Amino acid sequence: MMSTMVPTIIGLNEATKGARDQEENRRSESRSQRCHLIATCEVSAGSRAQRQQIHNAKVYLDQDYKFYITKYPSSRMGPFTGQYYEHPAFEENNSSGLITMSPENPPLARWVYLDKETNEVKYGGRKDGEGNVCGPFDWTEDEQYVTLQGNERWLAVRLPEDTRKEQELEDLGLADGDDAVKGLWRLYFDRSGSVGLPEGAETMQIRLKREPAEE
């Protein structure tokens, strides 16, 4: 009887391994797929005006190497268009890094990192990320939302200077210009429960949803 069971057990093991390999290939392909990032927030978060500016707004990169959230980007901005990628700071064959195409001319693949001093999300070359938080970036169990160091402590931040600049452009009648940005928020990550923002800064907890980018 044992002789008849052995082929069955081997067949089951091979089927299990095949399914596991297939799932690993699917996961790897999904992680390498380029995507945009969409900010989402709870219906009870912040004020109605804040939710209107943030919820379902895309994440953009500006040429100051910082990340922004807005529904009205300027002509110098480009949407986050990136993917998980192997980072030299982590174990071999990882996909714990995050890269994105930059709005530079010509566009370049840049690393995403968190400034350890300001907790602001930025992008740059490999040396720019050294000494800062380069990951590990991952996704939630449903593979829909981005995490950093296993958490979703993303923050949309609006500094007093952002509000002041927007008002100045409106007063000058330049609010609809190519370089004007309405409802601008910055992207931060709260690692310690205290981001250390200037007085008067507005904050809102958000999630970053992955949206497949058109090839």
TrEMBL record:
It comes from Aspergillus sclerotiicarbonarius (strain CBS 121057 / IBT 28362). The lineage of its organism: Eukaryota, Fungi, Dikarya, Ascomycota, Pezizomycotina. Residues 17-32 have a biased composition (Basic and acidic residues). This is Uncharacterized protein. Residues 1-33 are annotated as: Disordered.
